Amino acid sequence: MASKRRLLIVAVVVLFAAVAALAIAADLVVEDGKGWDLDVDYDEWVDGNEFFVGNRLALFKYIKGNHSVVEATAAGFAACSAANSLATWASGDDRVPLSAPGQRWFFSGVGKDCVQGMRFNFTVLPVVKLSPSPSSSLPPPPSSSSAPRSSGGSGLAPVLGIAFNWVTN
């Protein structure tokens, strides 16, 4: 009976991990389908999203020739200048992989699009991978009266770690 219970718990943990992995490797559509356009508040869209390594900005949908997508340095972004751009796309259906953590800057390089607000920047966050640790190296759990309280987060990492250690012991 105990082995069936462990198997069920492992299955639930694996399901949660799979769902989390799918959420991390997401395609993000700029402005949730409104496309790459002058009438969009990109700062608001950025504030409503998190960007992780492994995501892909399947974002830039526009009529070819009306706009472009320029990935710039901080200085190029501030000046709306494509002179020293990192990359440029102009297909009308552009996809940009987020392959490394760090700051990214994008704007439209056509006409006055950038100075009219067709630009945004964000930080790509690293994906934290859980690695199993030998159960002998785990410190004893703190007593309930002295245990620190978490102030946020999903709590998935501690659950996965505890489940892994419990199943492998």
UniProtKB/TrEMBL annotation:
GO biological process, one term: response to symbiotic fungus
Ranges where the Phytocyanin domain occurs: 26-126
GO molecular function, one term: electron transfer activity
Membrane topology classification: Single-pass type I membrane protein
One term under GO cellular component: plasma membrane
Record-annotated membrane-spanning stretches: none
Annotated compartments: Membrane
Name of this protein: Phytocyanin domain-containing protein
Phylogenetic placement of the source organism: Eukaryota, Viridiplantae, Streptophyta, Embryophyta, Tracheophyta
